[in-house]
Design a protein that fits this description.
The protein is mainly beta. The protein has no helices and seven strands.
């Protein structure tokens, strides 16, 4: 965490990196997995709930993810052309 010095002293700033949760849809690459995340958002004009899906490339250093696992990932520095996420934890293993 980064310390910020203010007039009242030093306070901690929370980590500003985004955290997402998703499902592994591919692990065919070496040290990389593809995660699909789903977000439910309200349409700005029609007010209907819309599901948005995104595919994120995640660094998997030990190649221990399997298709179907639910994982929590965090944004990080660019690791390759497409990889900008790393694994925080495996929430649920695939059966």
């Amino acid at each position: 965490m980064t310390d910020i010095t203010t007039s009242s002293g030093t306070e901690k700033r929370p980590n500003k990196r985004r955290v997402r949760e998703g499902k592994v849809i591919s692990n065919a690459m070496d040290k990389t997995a593809v995660i699909e995340t789903t977000d439910r958002v309200r349409h700005y004009r029609y007010k209907k709930i819309v599901t948005r899906r995104g595919r994120l490339y995640v660094h998997d250093p030990h190649n221990d993810l399997a298709v179907g696992d639910r994982v929590r990932i965090q944004e990080t520095r660019p690791l390759s052309k497409l990889k900008r996420w790393r694994i925080l934890e495996v929430v649920e293993r695939a059966r």
